[in-house]
Amino acid sequence: MSQFYSLLVQTADNAAEQQPTWMMLLTTVLPIVLMVVIFYFLLIRPEKKRSKKMKEMLDNLQVADEVVTSGGIIGRVLSVKEDTVLIETGSDRTRLRVLRTAIIENRTVHDEVK
Q1: Ordered alpha helix ranges (H), the chain
Q2: Measured between alpha carbons, how far is 109 from 104 in angstroms, rounded to an integer?
Q3: How far is CA 26 from CA 8, 13, 21, 40, in A?
Q4: Spatial CA neighbour of 50 closest among 111, 105, 4, 110
Q5: Would the CA dihedral through 62, 63, 65, 66 be positive or negative?
Q6: What pLDDT, in 10s, does the model give residues 51-98?
Q7: Sign of torsion, CA 87 88 94 95?
Q8: What is the per-residue pLDDT across 2-31, written as a single tens digit (0 to 9) for each?
Q9: CB neighbours of 110 closer than 8 A, spacing ≥ 6?
Q10: pTM, whole model, 2 decimals?
Q11: How far apart are the two ends of the chain, measured CA to CA in Å?
């Protein structure tokens, strides 16, 4: 009986020692996990949405769209090639060839086909 009692006391002591270990592990890992989740929702996810929207806008460029370049030039699209776009600016009909990635905004509203 005394062996059983000593084994029971030893098991209870081991359980008491292991519980703080789990609590320590939880208190060290939980803040890191929370920071990763917060960074994902505040930084990574919105940036992915923004880049997806920008890629979609660049892929849907059409002739006669009014666009704005990263340098602030506003013009109408005359032709769209693989990686360049020819735009015409102002009433003097100045033509510029710019990279497709230099276009930051399409001001023409298109009907969305669903």
Answers
A1: 2-39, 45-59
A2: 15
A3: 27, 21, 9, 21
A4: 105
A5: positive
A6: 999 999 999 999 999 999 999 999 999 999 999 999 999 888 899 999
A7: positive
A8: 666 665 566 655 655 555 677 788 888 999
A9: 60, 62
A10: 0.66
A11: 78
Token representation of residue 12: 């209870």
Residue 16 CB-density burial (10 A; 0-12 exposed, 13-18 middle, 19+ buried): exposed
Amino acid identity at 35:
M
Measure the CA angle with vertex 40, ends 35 and 44; round to 5°: 135
Distance, in Å, from the CA atom of 47 to the CA atom of 54, rounded to the nearest integer, reads 10
Tallying the residues shown for the chain, one arrives at 114
Q: Supply the DSSP string of 50-73, one letter for each residue.
A: HHHHHHHHHHT--TT-EEEETTS-
Find how far residue 65's CA is from the centre of its chain: 27
Closest CA to 69 of 108, 106, 107, 102: 102
